[in-house]
Amino acid sequence: MKKQLNIRIFTILLIITLVSISTSFNSMAFAHFDHLPHNNGGGDQIGRYYVNQALEPEYAKPGEPTHIEFSIQDDDGNDVQNVETAVEIYDAITGQRIELFPWEFHPTGDFEVHYTFEKKGNYLLVISLADEGSSQEHVIPPRSILSSSYNCDCERVVFNISITPNIGTVWDSVMSAGILLPLIVFGSVLSMHFLNLRKNQNQPKNPEVIKYLIVFLAVAGGIIHLGVYADHGSLRLEYSVFLLAAAATQVAFGTFYVLMTVVQPITKSRQSVLSYYNKTVILNIIGFVGTAVLLGLYLYVVIFPPPLSPDNKPEELELDGIFSKSVEFATVIGIIYLMQYEKKKKNVLLNSIPSK
Fold this sequence. Notes:
The chain is α+β, with helices and mostly antiparallel strands. 49% of the residues lie in helices and 21% in strands. The strands form 2 sheets. A 4-stranded antiparallel β-sheet has the order 1-2-3-6, with no helix packed on it. Helix 1 (2-22) packs antiparallel against helix 5. Residues 13-30 have low confidence and may be disordered.
């Protein structure tokens, strides 16, 4: 039974790791924005192309200068060149057109227009893509059916925009709570276990305290990945999937380690000591290899263009990335320490058990 449990733990973590690696070899692109938009963004089919749209800042406030960004690609996710577009902005309540960016030729499908939304409320953003052979002189009059291409020589698609003064603050607060709350809960569980040992006059040794800190770092690294995965999804959707899978692996590593420590304490028998040690070996090897791979990939992508990169450029060094990799580097060193500590503890416990 215990051997089967070891195999199950190994299989679960191995599957998560393999999924994270295999998804990076898919070939579907998403868009070329700085991050995957959570709000005021989306995509839709327009003729033979697919149009992605985003705002920068994403949670634009009334009176704040805003970049309206577009990324036009074909159905296979490839970049397009030589497109002619016009952009309109309508008030969603009155239906009145309040801004027109006339026909303009773009050498690539990535472009932006600048606008300041003066009032809070909902707006409708319309992008028109000219048909081949059409003339830039053709005029787009305001219309009640915004998606209609009547008398336009174009294809049109409509996006919804919401301008509010506080939604950005609400989103940032929710995301911060989503990152901090699991860390607080996880840290509380470790602290309660530590205090319970002291209450029972079983003072934890310093190596045990360090072990708690290491598994806490592993979980923290996973939660950090959950917080930043969306920033990479706009470059390649696979990047976000990879980060989500990496986060799941890191959280699973820390969680399984805590469960083994808290739920399955070692009893004084050779079988239980060896069973516990074998489980730690499996977890530590997977944790070490997985975290080391993440560090290696990060070093690679800041020096060389990452695999499947849409712009064939290395990633920029950013504060959140440096912080995340610092946590992972500390985790790798900690796992090496854990492997040595668990081996020493196994030998001490085995030597203390009388042989039959």
